[in-house]
Amino acid sequence: MNLTNISTVKDVLSRHGFSFSKGLGQNFIINPDICPKIAEYGNAQAGYGILEIGTGIGVLTKELALRADRVSAVEIDTRLLPVLAETLDGLDNIKIYNEDVMKADLHRIIAEDFAGLRAAVCANLPYYITSPVIMLLLESRLPIDSITVMVQKEAAQRLCAAVGSRESGAITVGVNYYGEVKKLFDVSRGSFMPAPNVDSAVIRIDLHKELPLSQEDEKFFFSVVKAGFSQRRKTLANALSSNMGIAKQEVYDTLASLGLNEQSRIEALTMEQLTAFSKALSSRV
Ligand code: SAM
């Protein structure tokens, strides 16, 4: 079944009485060029198990299953199960979990379904939970090589901004802490059914083999990042004193010890400067 043929898709959906849920971010890919590209950039190849989040009618799932050894997909919408039984019929390396990705046991899925394989995540993410899903995947330290996802263009810009630039945010730092992120290609709104109001882009995060900080230092680092970006126009000293109760002088002294301007804002610091700052500050407070 050609899952990018509009009349085929409309026919299968209407036979199952399916109507799109805006709340679940259901914009399905109908541009035939997109899913093969996501699969190829996203490590869908022999020797890999791919975890997909949000199958829709399975247009990406199918491309992943044609290339990777196994595909396990988490889809929250129960109404899609009979649709998927039809659209993915004949592909025997796919397992669908009818669950909320935020609650699913992704470690278990990967361990059980992908034993002996390398693993990666590919998805056209539901936009209402883009950042929470990405941070969940990263923070839960899944044994995966990469995360290749379609997100809204604005989200892609923020995720792929340089840490230390005005376009960066707490999510930029979060993602760069865990991996190397790059934008792969843009996708116009007309590539989806129904068409959303914004364009999209596909990004890939290649996970670091080793993280910059120990687990204890990491907790403090993320508190600093959260506090700093919650008042990003203020100096770090002001933001950390009002949000974390840290004496401004300690912040000034820590910045000075690293050769940084005492009046620095968080958005001016690079990843290396931020991790060094957080490490040095945590040993003082
Ligand atoms: N992969 C399909 C495609 O590209 O055509 C569908 C992508 S659509 C943007 C997002 C999908 O995620 C929908 O099928 C939606 O039902 C599902 N979804 C939304 N929230 C979810 C959640 N919390 N857990 C799992 N799936 C979810």
Task: Tell me what the structure shows.
With 285 residues, the protein is α/β, with parallel strands linked by helices. The protein has 2 domains: 6-207, 3-Layer(aba) Sandwich (Rossmann fold), CATH 3.40.50; 215-282, rRNA adenine dimethylase, C-terminal domain (Helicase, Ruva Protein, domain 3, Orthogonal Bundle), CATH 1.10.8. It has 12 helices and 9 strands. It has helices spanning 6-15, 34-41, 59-67, 80-87, 106-113, 130-139, 153-160, 170-178, 215-230, 236-244, 248-257, 271-282; strands at 28-29, 48-53, 70-74, 94-97, 118-124, 146-152, 179-187, 192-193, 200-207. Strands 4-3-2-5-6-9-7 form a 7-stranded mixed β-sheet, with helices on both faces. Strands 1-8 form a two-stranded antiparallel sheet. Helix 4 links the parallel strand 3 and strand 4. Helix 2 crosses helix 3, helix 9 packs across helix 10 and helix 10 (236-244) packs across helix 11. The radius of gyration is 21 Å and the shape is elongated. It starts with 5 loop residues before the first helix and ends with a helix. The model has no long low-confidence stretch (mean pLDDT 97). S-adenosylmethionine is lined by residues 24-29, 53-56, 59-60, 74-77, 100-102, 124, 126, 129.
How many domain units? 2
Which hetero ligands occur in this complex? S-adenosylmethionine
What is the level-2 CATH architecture name of the largest domain?
A: 3-Layer(aba) Sandwich
Going across the major beta sheet, what is the strand order? 4-3-2-5-6-9-7
**What is the number of beta strands?**
9
Low-pLDDT windows of residues: none
Predict the CATH topology of the largest domain: Rossmann fold
Proportion of helical residues:
40-55%
Order of helices and strands: HEHEHEHEHEHEHHEEEHHHH
What is the count of DSSP helices, taking H or I runs of 4+ residues?
12
The dominant shape is elongated
Which superfamily, in CATH terms, is the homologous superfamily of the largest domain? Answer: Vaccinia Virus protein VP39
